[in-house]
């Protein structure tokens, strides 16, 4: 019993609104109290159900309108208590969905007797009807407006939080408060009609010097009907917007004047971040609610000013200064929002990395559940239990296991070897097919944004799609570090992606998956494909990045086989996003994907026509093919309209691209570049041997089908040549080559898994063992070749243009240098250097540019019969120097020596140079800037990118918190 004697001095104030679902339990809980309250005042806010009829006759009922807010209802209840129980010291606030445990009031009163300095007390809140899950043990608020309970998500009550402690606030569902203090504080703020008023009251009480205590021995079960949307309120269905508005209002109205500007700025920026987070987890409604809450609070400052004025006047009347130290101590620590951010990122990464593994697990479970009594089902259950036990052991000793795990150490050794071998790509690097990077990131942004580019004699050819990706990365890392990072880190990224994909693919064959040594060998072999093909050493940045992304694309494509329709749809968006990234660096990859989808749908039509015609089946692959078309629209659409369709088949980097050929696709070689061909032959032969084990024959056949489709696409494109300015180049077949290599590696790993896990005759087993040994020789031989081979990458300046011409060209686009190569007998080729010369991303633009007929005629006349009019025309075209590259053709040099208006200049050995002694046109290569059509395409691209990111993200199934 309470130490307060026979009279408890407590009056229960119960606010009810359409609570018939819970009210009988609340009334029963009040009747079970060990300490009987002096009275019960019920304020019913216009209930339309039988709530009032469920109340006992001895309860004092005050009926008010349905539009009455909770603060107003409490005020009306206090007025009735002042009349009927004038001597009551305490008011116990309850909701019609909060049932107190029998000793709840007794425990609160006992704590009040032990702590006379306490004016507000709150119970432990547990979820109703689960009864064991914790909801609150006192609350506070973070600097971002998050209601902080200090509890883990879904935490159960095991007595772990049963210490009494001072808190900022306690919930009004079970709050015991001194009646005098509640009246002095003015009750709850009427500007907080339903949510957040308990936090505001607690903050004001702490500022006034009052103590709020949470008493865990007092238990109240709370259904949180309004918060969970179970009960219809006068605020409407958008619960989140009102909760967020209450949090923002509470922070701003109670902050000091000095902290108000900083808190306002933080909440504004924090709202933007929260909106992005909600969009990532596909909750656009809550994102809009966050924005609406911010707007209603910030753009209606009258309520804020009034609330802050009331708080100042109340403290002045009470003769008190705000107890800022107490409030600061009770607010959530400053690091709490960052912890929540890290938790969110962790949840997102976990959801991303486990997506395909979940697909494989569900497929195996679904297959086993078709016959629960089968041996397969029993084996699946046993293997799952063993794997869970193994995972538990791995989690408990991860560090110790790492240093004793040869597979982990081997992977680390492989990655370190890659980083060491790729050290030539560190710093300013160019050479081969790789042009130098621009001096600043703005050059890449301008190349992506502008319709007209001051390259050569001016061009409207659109920038390749990978330029915007380079610009995004360079905005953080800088241009030089961006290219170095892509060249150095792409190989470890490809290794990681290949390991993940092969692990999941192996589990699709067998629940136990492939042995780890097979995964390491296969992943290493694939990750070295851009090296052994010659792409890395030649500086083919596009193929290097595409090779790193391809395993992740294949991993996402496994989601097409998910039994859940929603997951298949998200897989379509995810595959589309990754395909857009791959196709940005290797455009032909989209055509390979188109062929694979067509073959898959045609094959499925032949086997199960009715199933394939469903939109739920073909919709995801169609989405995957459509996403790159939308995201790359600022590139391919102007290219086709402007007659530059060759860009869709062009290999990234300097032209001409090396010819791959049909055998190059199978052997993984770009022309004469790369490692010895016998390494590729071994992989093909072992891939054929992978067809022998029966246990894995079907997935290996699928790998070969995909490889053959890529070979057919490459064979169809092999005869195609793209006409560029001054030369022709074969179609870029790097993407089909990478697909073939990935399929061969996957076939070898799955075949070896089938040989190891399955049953083979002795002769076939010996042959399979020989194949496995040969397969292991492939990555070792590739790594050894890389360690001893030379590459074309260098950090030295290999420019053939004299330094003084370079300095002049950087003064403006009108100071161009006309560079002429070749001879009269073999043909002459010319280019124009402007600014800092051709940089990464500009090669394809200039190669696809066809000079105007007047420009061609002027240059032809200059190199054959240069007249004063022709030289004048050079000045109009923004050419200040003419450079004949060594070995300079004598006939052309003699003609230029005698030309009026050309003055000989210094040059390198066996080269010749002349300066144009004529006025230079400052606007020679100026264009129309950026057209409205391109702006429209860029806006669509940006919005589509954000939408695809949201749609591709995994669902984080978490409980929404207030």
TrEMBL record:
<keyword id="KW-0812">Transmembrane</keyword>
<feature type="transmembrane region" description="Helical">
    <location>
        <begin position="699"/>
        <end position="722"/>
    </location>
</feature>
<dbReference type="GO" id="GO:0016757">
    <property type="term" value="F:glycosyltransferase activity"/>
</dbReference>
<feature type="transmembrane region" description="Helical">
    <location>
        <begin position="673"/>
        <end position="692"/>
    </location>
</feature>
<dbReference type="InterPro" id="IPR050834">
    <property type="entry name" value="Glycosyltransf_2"/>
</dbReference>
<feature type="transmembrane region" description="Helical">
    <location>
        <begin position="466"/>
        <end position="496"/>
    </location>
</feature>
<keyword id="KW-0808">Transferase</keyword>
<protein>
    <submittedName>
        <fullName>Glycosyltransferase family 2 protein</fullName>
        <ecNumber>2.4.-.-</ecNumber>
    </submittedName>
</protein>
<feature type="transmembrane region" description="Helical">
    <location>
        <begin position="932"/>
        <end position="953"/>
    </location>
</feature>
<feature type="transmembrane region" description="Helical">
    <location>
        <begin position="543"/>
        <end position="565"/>
    </location>
</feature>
<feature type="transmembrane region" description="Helical">
    <location>
        <begin position="764"/>
        <end position="787"/>
    </location>
</feature>
<dbReference type="InterPro" id="IPR029044">
    <property type="entry name" value="Nucleotide-diphossugar_trans"/>
</dbReference>
<keyword id="KW-0328">Glycosyltransferase</keyword>
<keyword id="KW-1133">Transmembrane helix</keyword>
<feature type="transmembrane region" description="Helical">
    <location>
        <begin position="734"/>
        <end position="752"/>
    </location>
</feature>
<keyword id="KW-0472">Membrane</keyword>
<dbReference type="Pfam" id="PF13641">
    <property type="entry name" value="Glyco_tranf_2_3"/>
</dbReference>
<feature type="transmembrane region" description="Helical">
    <location>
        <begin position="577"/>
        <end position="608"/>
    </location>
</feature>
């Amino acid at each position: 019993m309470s130490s307060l004697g026979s009279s408890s001095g407590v009056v229960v104030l119960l606010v009810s609104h359409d609570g018939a679902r819970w009210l009988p339990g609340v009334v029963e809980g009040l009747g079970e109290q060990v300490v009987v309250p002096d009275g019960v005042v019920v304020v019913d806010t216009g209930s339309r159900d039988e709530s009032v009829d469920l109340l006992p006759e001895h309860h004092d009922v005050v009926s008010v309108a349905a539009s009455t807010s909770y603060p107003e209802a409490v005020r009306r209840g206090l007025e009735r208590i002042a009349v009927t129980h004038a001597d009551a010291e305490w008011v116990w606030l309850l909701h019609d969905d909060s049932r107190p445990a029998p000793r709840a009031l007794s425990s609160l009163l006992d704590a009040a007797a032990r702590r006379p300095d306490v004016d507000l007390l709150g119970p432990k809140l547990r979820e109703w009807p689960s009864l064991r899950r914790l909801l609150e043990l006192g609350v506070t608020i973070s600097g971002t407006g998050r209601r902080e309970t200090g509890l883990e998500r879904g935490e159960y009550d095991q007595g772990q939080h049963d210490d009494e402690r001072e808190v900022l606030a306690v919930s009004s569902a079970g709050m015991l408060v001194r009646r005098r203090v509640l009246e002095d504080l003015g009750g709850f703020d009427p500007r907080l009609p339903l949510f957040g008023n308990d936090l505001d009251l607690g903050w004001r009480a702490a500022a006034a010097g009052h103590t709020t205590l949470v008493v865990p021995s007092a238990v109240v079960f709370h259904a949180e009907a309004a918060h969970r949307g179970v009960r219809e309120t006068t605020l409407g269905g958008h619960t989140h917007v009102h909760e967020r508005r209450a949090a923002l209002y509470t922070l701003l109205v109670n902050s000091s004047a000095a902290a108000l500007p900083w808190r306002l700025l933080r909440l504004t920026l924090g709202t933007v971040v929260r909106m992005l987070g909600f969009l990532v987890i596909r909750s656009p409604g809550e994102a809009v609610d966050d924005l609406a809450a911010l707007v209603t609070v910030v753009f209606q400052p009258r309520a804020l000013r009034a609330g802050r004025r009331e708080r100042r006047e109340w403290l002045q009347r009470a003769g008190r200064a705000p107890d800022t130290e107490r409030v600061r101590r009770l607010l959530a620590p400053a690091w709490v929002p960052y912890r929540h951010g890290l938790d969110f990122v962790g949840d997102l990464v976990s959801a991303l990395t486990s997506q395909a593994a979940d697909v494989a697990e569900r497929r195996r479970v679904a297959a086993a559940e078709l016959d629960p009594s089968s041996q397969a089902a029993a084996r699946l259950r046993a293997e799952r239990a063993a794997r869970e036990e193994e995972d538990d052991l791995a989690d408990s000793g991860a560090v110790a296991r790492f240093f004793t795990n040869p597979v982990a150490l081997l992977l680390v050794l492989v990655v370190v070897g890659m980083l060491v071998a790729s050290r030539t790509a560190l710093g300013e690097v160019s050479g081969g097919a790789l042009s130098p990077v621009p001096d600043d990131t703005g050059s890449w942004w301008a190349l992506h944004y502008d319709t007209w580019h001051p390259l050569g004699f001016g061009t409207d050819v659109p920038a390749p799609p990978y330029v915007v990706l380079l610009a995004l990365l360079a905005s953080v890392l800088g241009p030089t570090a961006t290219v170095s990072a892509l060249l150095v880190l792409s190989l470890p990224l490809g290794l990681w992606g290949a390991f993940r994909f092969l692990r999941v693919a192996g589990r699709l064959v067998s629940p136990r998956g492939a042995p780890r040594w097979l995964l390491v060998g296969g992943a290493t072999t694939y990750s070295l494909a851009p090296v052994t093909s010659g792409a890395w050493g030649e500086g083919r940045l596009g193929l290097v990045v595409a090779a790193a992304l391809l395993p992740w694309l294949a991993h996402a494509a496994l989601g097409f086989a998910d039994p859940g329709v929603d997951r298949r749809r998200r897989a379509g968006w995810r595959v589309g996003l990754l395909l857009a990234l791959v196709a940005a660096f290797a455009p032909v990859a989209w055509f390979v994907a188109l062929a694979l989808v067509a073959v898959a749908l045609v094959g499925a039509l032949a086997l199960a026509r009715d199933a394939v015609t469903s939109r739920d089946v073909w919709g995801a692959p169609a989405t995957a093919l459509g996403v790159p078309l939308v995201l790359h629209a600022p590139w391919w659409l102007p290219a086709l309209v402007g007659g530059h369709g060759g860009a869709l088949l062009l290999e990234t980097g300097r032209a001409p691209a090396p010819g791959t050929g049909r055998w190059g696709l199978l052997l993984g070689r770009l022309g004469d570049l790369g490692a010895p061909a016998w390494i590729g032959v071994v992989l093909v032969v072992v891939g054929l041997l992978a067809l022998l084990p029966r246990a894995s024959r079907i997935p290996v056949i699928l790998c070969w089908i995909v490889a053959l489709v890529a070979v057919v696409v490459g064979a169809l494109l092999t005869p195609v040549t793209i006409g560029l300015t001054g030369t022709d180049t074969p179609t870029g077949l790097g993407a089909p080559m990478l697909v073939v290599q990935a399929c061969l590696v996957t076939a070898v790993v799955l075949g070896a898994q089938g040989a190891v896990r399955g049953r083979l005759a002795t002769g076939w087993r010996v042959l399979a063992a020989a194949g496995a040994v040969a397969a292991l020789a492939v990555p070792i031989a590739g790594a050894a070749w890389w360690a001893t081979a030379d590459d074309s990458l260098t950090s030295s300046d290999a420019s053939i243009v004299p330094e003084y011409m370079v300095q002049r060209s950087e003064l403006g686009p009108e100071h161009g240098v006309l560079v002429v190569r070749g001879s009269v007998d073999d043909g002459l080729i010319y280019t124009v250097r402007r600014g800092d010369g051709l940089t990464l991303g500009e090669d394809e633009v200039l190669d696809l540019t066809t000079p105007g007929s007047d420009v061609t005629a002027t240059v032809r006349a200059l190199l054959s019969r240069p007249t004063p009019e022709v030289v004048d025309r050079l000045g109009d075209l923004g050419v200040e120097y003419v450079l004949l590259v060594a070995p300079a053709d004598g006939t052309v040099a003699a003609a230029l020596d005698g030309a009026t208006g050309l003055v000989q200049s210094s040059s390198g050995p066996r080269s010749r140079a002349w300066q144009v002694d004529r006025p230079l046109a400052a606007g020679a290569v100026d264009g129309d800037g950026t057209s409205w059509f391109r702006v429209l395409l860029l806006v669509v691209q940006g919005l589509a990118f954000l939408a695809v990111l949201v749609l591709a993200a995994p669902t984080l199934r978490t409980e929404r918190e207030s």
